[in-house]
Each structure stands twice: as C-alpha cells, then as structure tokens.
Write a structure and sequence with these properties.
The protein has 272 residues and is α/β, with parallel strands linked by helices. The protein has 11 helices and 7 strands. It has one domain: Rossmann fold (3-Layer(aba) Sandwich). The protein is 40% helix and 23% strand.
Length: 272
C-alpha cells in the first residue's frame, strides 16, 4: 500500500514530465557502479522503481535471477509492466509497498537498490534499515543520490529555481541533494563503515539534443506537475514565478554554450 508519509513528502508525481525524466534512466546512465557486483542468478529488489526502466535493465543483467520493483504509488506500474512485456523481459515484477516497512522476510534478496529515493522520503535511515534487513548475509545495499549541481551560464534564475525546489522539499520533510552524506545514513542504519564503498557518478547535459530534453522537461515539470501545485498551494511562490522560471529553462535550451551537470553520491554496502 502507499505510504501516507511518502505521499506527503514527495513533491512531484507520476505525470508526463516527471515520467519523461525517470524513463530516461537506465543501468548504464544511473547505476553503472552496481554492475560489477551483479551475477546472472541474483534476486534483486529495486526500491522506488517508478516507470521501471532501471528495474527492467537490472533484470537483463540477471537473466537466471529475478527482480522486483517496488513503488509507493501504483500510478506508474502498469506502464512498467507494459514496457517489460514489450521488451520481452520476463524475470521482473512490479508491486506497491512502503520502503519504511518492506513486505518481505529477512534475508530475501541478494541486492537491494534505490536510485534517487532516499531524498524523497520521511526517514531515509529507517528505509536503509529495511533495505538491509531484507538483504541476505553477504549481499549488498546500493543507493545513489544527487549531491551537487553545476550549470553554465550561471543564471540567477537557476539559482532561484534550485533554492525554491530545496525549500519546498525541506518544508515537506524531504532531504534534497544528500549524495555527500548517504554513507553516514548507512552507518546509522547498521552498516559498519568498513563495509561501505563510496563513489561518485555524474550526469551531464551539454549537446543541443541533451539541452533540449533536460531543459524542456524541467520547464514542463515546473509548471505542469504536482510540484507546481505544491509550490503555489503551500505559499512558496506565485504561479507567475514558475512561468518565469520555466521560460528561463527554455531560454537556456537555446544557448549553444549551455551546460548542466549533476554529481551523485553512490554507496555499495555489504551486509555482514
């Protein structure tokens, strides 16, 4: 079932613009740090699976294994199931559940993975405890979260956009951009520091096509998703402010020197 806390904390939704963003994510561009740890027969839990593109990709890496994608909301899961069927990936399933209280027994999975999930929930340490609990001894918990963003030109509108996004997320109980300290959360969740391997992965959008995709997605997301309703409804800004920020994103798309990068903190945590 969906978690009330998850519904209240998450400042986006599963409408067209966020799904467009999430559906771009694959193992190659969002979970490459995990690949060296995968074996063909592993059982994997993908927490916060959304539209399932990473989940389905993980299933391809474990053809003799099985992957479960869990999401607090059922909204994107029919699309994920359809995508898996279209691509002929049969060793995957999608279910609803709450990462704060996973519905699986102890020691069920070889790998438990989460991408850009911990920042959007009420209690990330409890989530990691649950992820650790359902992982087998000798298995791993893997997580990746945004840590820092850089862009060019250094537009004041983008500074405003980032400050507004972070302020709204924190007001709702989220933890935006925790990539630099997710290893600390893992320690608090019960992992020994020596069992935690840290790394950094990046996204970079600089070509014309990349700018067009990223910038237009954020322009649409800024005015046409639940984020916009929350931003205005909770009193953080006016609708006109969001329209102005969306226009700044569209202007940036046209700048041939435009560049946007995100550094993500990554952790591989081995369960004793």
């Amino acid at each position: 079932m969906a978690s009330v806390d998850s519904e209240r904390v998450y400042i986006s939704d599963h409408s067209a613009a966020p799904i467009r963003s999430h559906s771009w994510r694959t193992v190659d561009n969002s979970a490459a740090y995990l690949v060296p740890h995968l074996k063909p027969d592993l059982r994997i839990l993908d927490v916060g699976c959304g539209p399932g593109t990473i989940t389905i990709d993980l299933a391809r890496h474990v053809p003799q294994g099985h992957v479960v994608g869990v999401e607090y909301s059922p909204d994107p899961l029919d699309g994920a199931r359809t995508l898996a069927a279209q691509e002929g990936v049969n060793n995957v399933e999608f279910v609803t559940g709450d990462v704060h209280a996973l519905q699986y027994p102890d020691n069920t999975f070889d790998v438990v993975h989460a991408h850009q999930v911990l920042q959007h929930i009420r209690d990330p340490v409890q989530a990691l405890r649950e992820m650790r609990r359902v992982t087998k001894a000798g298995g791993i918990v893997a997580a990746r979260e945004s840590g820092a963003m850089l862009w060019y030109p250094r537009l004041p509108a983008f500074d405003e956009w980032k400050e507004l996004y972070n302020r709204i997320a924190k007001a709702r109980g989220g933890n935006p951009d925790p990539g630099s300290y997710i290893h600390v959360w893992a320690k608090e969740a019960g992992f020994d520091r020596a069992s935690i391997k840290c790394s950094v992965g990046t996204w970079c959008f600089s070509t014309q096509d990349e700018r067009k995709w990223w910038g237009n997605m954020w322009a649409d997301r800024s005015v046409g998703s639940a984020y916009a309703d929350i931003a205005v409804g909770d009193g953080h800004c006016a609708r006109e402010d969001l329209e102005r920020l969306a226009a700044a994103w569209r202007d940036w798309v046209q700048n041939e020197d435009g560049w946007f990068s995100i550094a993500h903190g990554e952790i591989i945590c081995r369960k004793d």
